[in-house]
């Protein structure tokens, strides 16, 4: 009698099939990951485009862009009024978040007053998808840990509060974010910048750029302890271009990437320009890392600073330097 062949694979055949499947996965996985990143990058571009349109609509109404943040240059902030709020709050109505804007009531109270209200302080923890890069791994609150909000040198009621994550930071300055250190971007403390101030042209001026988890991201609500001449948390909503793009470690001579721009996209970051266009900027873009072009350990400009020292990335961050600049 003829014996029937056993059903199924032999051990050798099974190992061959597993090896083939492994090779196919190894070949296909990078393509799948690239496709996913391309989709996330497109979503990020759409977010920034939405922010650009919102900023333009705000400008149409008020004839200027919103202030990067509101605060005093003295040691103590005023006891009332729209203090410590950041520019993302002021454009909430333009991104279909009018109800949230009205609940925050930024035109009539300080951010610290909201934090002192135990029934409302959680509002600033909300996730706003339009302010989040899909590629970034930051949790809904900055770094997933409580972000301290200190005002006038003392904390608000309690000790720590979560701040809703912001991945899109306003371009506030070339060198230092301090009020008195020649802010040169469109969104700095108490700024009232309009298109007329963009001498280099809106299409040649950064308006907003990315910052990712590794560089502490940002907080959409505003700043902490803004009183005084130092940054005081201004880097929560704005950044400066004297730090190389995607420089994830603290370079000698400046405050590190938590005041600069970075992203989780491979090879660069998305930037919103003054004309509301969104472009991917390579991390290899021209940048002059000399002391004269970067600044001292506070980011303040050196005495030997000249515009000719600047790279293309730095020139895009200055809206009125009069220097020709191009990505080409």
UniProtKB/TrEMBL annotation:
Signal peptide positions on this chain: none
NCBIfam families xrefs: IV_pilin_GFxxxE (TIGR02532), pre_pil_HX9DG (TIGR04294)
Record carries keyword S-adenosyl-L-methionine: no
UniProt name for this protein: Prepilin-type cleavage/methylation domain-containing protein
Transmembrane region(s): 6-32
Origin superkingdom: Bacteria
Domain DUF1559 stretches: 33-286
Origin species: Blastopirellula marina
Coiled coil start-end: none
Keywords carried by this UniProt record: Membrane, Transmembrane, Transmembrane helix
Pfam families: N_methyl, SBP_bac_10
């Amino acid at each position: 009698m003829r014996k029937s062949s056993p059903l199924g694979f032999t051990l050798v055949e099974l190992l061959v099939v597993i090896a083939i499947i492994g090779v196919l996965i190894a070949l296909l996985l990078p393509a799948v990951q690239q496709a996913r990143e391309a989709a996330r990058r497109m979503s990020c571009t759409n977010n920034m485009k939405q922010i650009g349109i919102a900023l333009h609509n705000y400008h149409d109404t008020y004839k200027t862009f919103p202030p990067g943040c509101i605060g005093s240059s003295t040691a103590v902030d005023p006891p009332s009024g729209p203090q410590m709020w950041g520019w993302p709050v002021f454009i909430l109505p333009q991104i279909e978040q009018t109800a949230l804007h009205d609940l925050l009531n930024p035109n009539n109270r300080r951010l610290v007053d909201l934090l002192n209200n135990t029934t409302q302080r959680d509002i600033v923890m909300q996730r706003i998808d339009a302010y989040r890069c899909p590629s970034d791994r930051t949790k809904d609150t900055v770094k997933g840990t409580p972000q301290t909000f200190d005002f006038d040198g003392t904390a608000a009621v309690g000790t720590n509060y979560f701040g809703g994550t912001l991945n899109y930071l306003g371009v506030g300055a070339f060198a230092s974010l301090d009020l008195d250190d020649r802010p040169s971007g469109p969104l700095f403390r108490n700024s009232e910048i309009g298109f007329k101030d963009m001498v280099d042209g809106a299409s040649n001026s950064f308006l907003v750029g990315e910052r990712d988890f590794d560089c502490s991201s940002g907080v959409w609500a505003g700043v902490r302890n803004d009183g005084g001449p130092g940054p005081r948390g201004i880097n929560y909503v704005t950044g400066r271009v004297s730090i190389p793009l995607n420089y994830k470690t603290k370079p000698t001579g400046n405050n590190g990437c938590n005041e600069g721009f970075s992203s989780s996209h491979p090879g660069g970051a998305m930037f919103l320009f003054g004309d509301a266009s969104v472009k991917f900027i390579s991390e290899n873009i021209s940048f002059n890392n000399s002391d004269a072009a970067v600044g001292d350990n506070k980011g303040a400009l050196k005495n030997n600073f000249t515009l000719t020292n600047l790279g293309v990335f730095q020139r895009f961050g200055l809206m009125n330097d009069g220097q020709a600049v191009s990505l080409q």
